[in-house]
From TrEMBL:
Predominant location category: endoplasmic reticulum
Cellular localization per UniProt: Endoplasmic reticulum; Golgi apparatus; Lysosome; Secreted
Signal peptide: 1-26
GO cellular component, one term: Golgi apparatus
Record's keyword annotation contains Signal: yes
Record key words, sorted: Carboxypeptidase, Endoplasmic reticulum, Glycoprotein, Golgi apparatus, Hydrolase, Lysosome, Metal-binding, Metalloprotease, Protease, Secreted, Signal, Zinc, Zymogen
Family: Belongs to the peptidase M28 family.
Annotated SUPFAM superfamilies: Zn-dependent exopeptidases
Protein name in UniProt: Carboxypeptidase Q
Peptidase M28 domain residues: 276-461
Subunit text: Homodimer. The monomeric form is inactive while the homodimer is active.
Biological process annotations from GO: peptide catabolic process; proteolysis; thyroid hormone generation
Name of the gene this protein is made from: CPQ
Matches recorded under InterPro entries: CPQ (IPR039866), Peptidase_M28 (IPR007484)
C-alpha cells in the first residue's frame, strides 16, 4: 500500500513535470498543438510592425488619403441624409455603400438580408396650454404609439426619478408624467428613455415626456428607442429638451398647475427588408480567421447621422481602403461589416451573430466604432489580461500620433453579442461628453465632424485591425 502510493506519487510528479516542462522553457503549448509564443516574442513581433504603422499613419494623416474618410462621409450624408430603420433613405444608403465597396476593389462584397423594425414618427407637437401657451420642442421616441388625432390634453406630474414616481404613483393617474432626471451618464440615465413610458403607464399615466438624455443642450430634443411591455398598457411617449423639463419642474415646485396637449402620429409598420453590408480583404495565410471592423449604417431620422454612426462606419471602411492602398494583405481576413437596424437594439448585428456564431472560434477580435470620431484618446478593450497586454503593445505603435492608451469596456451594441461569448472586443475612445451633445438630435450633422480628427481615428483603427489580423497567433481569450 505504502509503496504503491509512493510510486504513484512519483508518477504524478513526473506527469506534472512533463506538463510544466514547456512552460519552464517559455513555450506553453496551445490547444491546437502549435506552440504559443511567449510574451517577449509577441512583444518583438509587434515592435516589428513599427514601419508599417508609420506608413499607415503617414498615408492617413499626412499623405494622399488625408481627409478621405471625411470627404466620403460628407458626400454620403449630404446626398442621402438620415437613415432610419425601414426607410427609403436607408435602402439607398445600403445600395450606395454596396457599390462604393465594390468600386473600391474590396473582396467578397455582398449584402446579408435581415428584417428590421419600421417605425415612423409622422407629425408631432406638444403645447403647454396652462398656465400659458408655450410650444415644447419634442421628438417622439422610437416605437411609441400615436395619440388620438386631437391629441392628449392632461395635467402633468414632474418627477426626477423612478423612485419619486413610485412614491407619488397615486398622483400620476390620468396625468402626463414628465421625467426631469439629472444626466449622470448615458449608460445610467438612458433607462428613463427606454423604460419611462412603461413605468408611467404602470402608475396610470396617459403619456410620458422624458428629459432628453444629453450632456448639453440648446433646447434640442434627443430621440432614441424605447420599449413597451406586453403586460403594461402602451402610452405615447416623447423626449423634450433639458430646458423645458427644468422649466416645468421649477413651475410645478411653485405649485403651478401645468396642462400639456400632446399630439403624435407615430406608426409602426410591418418589419422591413434590409441588409448588413459586408466587404473583405481576404487573409493570405488564415483566410478563415476574421478580424471584424464595423460601424452601423442606419441612424435616427433627425440631423444627418453623420456622427452616429456615419463617422464610425466610414473610418471602418477607411481601414480596409488604407490597407489596400499600401498593397498589404494580412494573414487573417479583415472583414468590414456595416450594420443595419442598430438603433432599434442591434437588430442586424443580432442576426449576423446568430448566423455566424458557428465560426466563433475563428473570430480573433470584433471592433466597432460607435461613440464618435472626434480627437481619439485611445482604444477601449474587453478581453483577458494576456490579450490586454498584447493590445498595450499594439497601441505603442501609435506613439507617432500619441494615441496609446488602452481603456476598459471595449465593444458596442453591435459586437457585444460576440464579446459576451468571450471574443475580444475593441472600440475607439474619444470625447464621449461631446458625443452626447449631438447624439440622436438634429445637431448630428457633418458640421460636428472634423477631417483631421477623422484621419487620426482612421489611423488608430487601421493600425490596430491590421496588426491583429497579421500577427502569427490569434489573441488569447
Ligand atoms: C484636410 O482638411 C484640413 C482641415 O480642413 C485642410 O486644412 C487640408 O487642406 C485638407 N487636406 C486636403 C488634402 O484636402
Ligand atoms: C464558417 O467559416 C467557413 C470557413 O471560412 C466558411 O466557409 C463558412 O461559410 C462559415 N460559415 C458561416 C455561417 O459563416
Ligand atoms: C499625449 O497624450 C497625453 C494623454 O492624452 C497628453 O497628456 C499629452 O500631453 C500628449 N502629448 C503630446 C506631445 O501631445
Ligand atoms: Zn450609434
Amino acid at each position: 500500500m505504502q509503496e504503491r502510493q509512493q510510486s504513484k506519487r512519483k508518477l504524478l510528479f513526473l506527469i506534472v513535470f512533463i506538463h510544466l516542462l514547456p512552460q519552464c522553457l517559455g513555450r506553453p503549448q496551445s490547444k491546437n498543438g502549435r506552440y504559443r509564443q511567449t510574451f517577449e516574442e509577441v512583444k518583438r513581433e509587434i515592435a516589428g510592425y513599427k514601419d508599417i504603422a508609420k506608413a499607415i499613419i503617414d498615408l492617413a494623416v499626412y499623405g494622399k488619403a488625408q481627409n478621405r474618410s471625411y470627404e466620403r462621409l460628407a458626400l454620403f450624408v449630404d446626398t442621402i441624409g438620415p437613415r432610419l430603420s425601414g426607410s427609403k433613405n436607408l435602402d439607398t444608403a445600403i445600395k450606395y455603400m454596396h457599390n462604393a465597396l465594390k468600386e473600391n476593389g474590396l473582396e467578397n462584397v455582398h449584402l446579408e438580408p435581415v428584417k428590421i423594425p419600421h417605425w415612423e414618427r409622422g407629425e408631432e407637437s406638444a403645447m403647454m396650454v396652462e398656465p400659458r401657451c408655450h410650444n415644447l420642442a419634442i421628438l417622439g421616441l422610437g416605437n411609441s404609439i400615436a395619440t388620438p388625432p386631437e391629441g392628449i390634453t392632461a395635467e402633468i406630474l414632474v418627477v426626477t426619478s423612478f423612485d419619486e414616481l413610485h412614491a407619488r404613483a397615486p398622483e400620476a393617474k390620468g396625468k402626463i408624467v414628465v421625467y426631469n432626471e439629472p444626466y449622470i451618464s448615458y449608460g445610467e440615465t438612458v433607462q428613463y428613455r427606454s423604460q419611462g413610458a412603461v413605468e408611467a403607464a404602470k402608475a396610470g399615466a396617459v403619456a410620458s415626456l422624458i428629459r432628453s438624455i444629453a450632456s448639453f443642450s440648446i433646447n434640442s430634443p434627443h430621440t432614441g428607442w424605447q420599449y413597451y411591455r406586453s403586460d403594461v398598457p402602451r402610452i405615447p411617449t416623447a423626449c423634450i429638451s433639458v430646458e423645458d423639463a427644468e422649466m416645468m419642474a421649477r413651475m410645478s415646485s411653485k405649485g403651478m398647475k401645468i396642462v400639456v396637449n400632446l399630439k403624435m402620429e407615430a406608426k409602426t409598420y410591418p418589419d422591413a427588408s434590409s441588409f448588413n453590408t459586408v466587404g473583405e480583404i481576404v487573409g493570405s495565410k488564415y483566410p478563415e480567421q476574421v478580424v471584424l471592423v464595423s460601424g452601423h449604417l442606419d441612424s435616427w431620422d433627425v440631423g444627418q447621422g453623420a456622427m452616429d454612426d456615419g463617422g464610425g462606419a466610414f473610418i471602418s471602411w477607411e481601414a480596409l481602403s488604407l490597407i489596400k492602398n499600401l498593397g498589404l494583405r494580412p494573414k487573417r481576413t479583415l472583414r468590414l461589416v456595416l450594420w443595419t437596424g442598430e438603433e432599434q437594439g442591434g437588430v442586424g448585428a443580432n442576426q449576423y451573430y446568430q448566423l455566424h456564431k458557428v465560426n466563433i472560434s475563428n473570430f480573433d477580435i470584433v471592433m466597432e466604432s460607435d461613440e464618435g470620431t472626434f480627437m481619439p484618446t485611445g482604444l477601449a478593450f474587453t478581453g483577458s489580461d494576456k490579450a490586454r497586454s498584447i493590445m498595450r503593445e499594439v497601441m505603442q505603435l501609435l506613439q507617432p500620433i500619441n494615441v496609446t492608451a488602452v481603456y476598459e469596456n471595449g465593444g458596442g451594441t453591435d459586437v457585444d453579442y460576440w464579446v459576451q461569448d468571450g471574443v475580444p472586443g475593441a472600440s475607439l475612445l474619444d470625447d464621449i461628453t461631446k458625443y452626447f451633445w449631438f447624439h440622436h438630435s438634429n445637431g448630428d450633422t457633418m458640421t460636428v465632424q472634423d477631417p483631421n480628427q477623422m484621419n487620426l481615428c482612421a489611423a488608430v483603427w487601421t493600425v490596430v485591425s491590421y496588426v491583429i489580423a497579421d500577427m502569427e497567433e490569434m489573441l488569447p481569450r
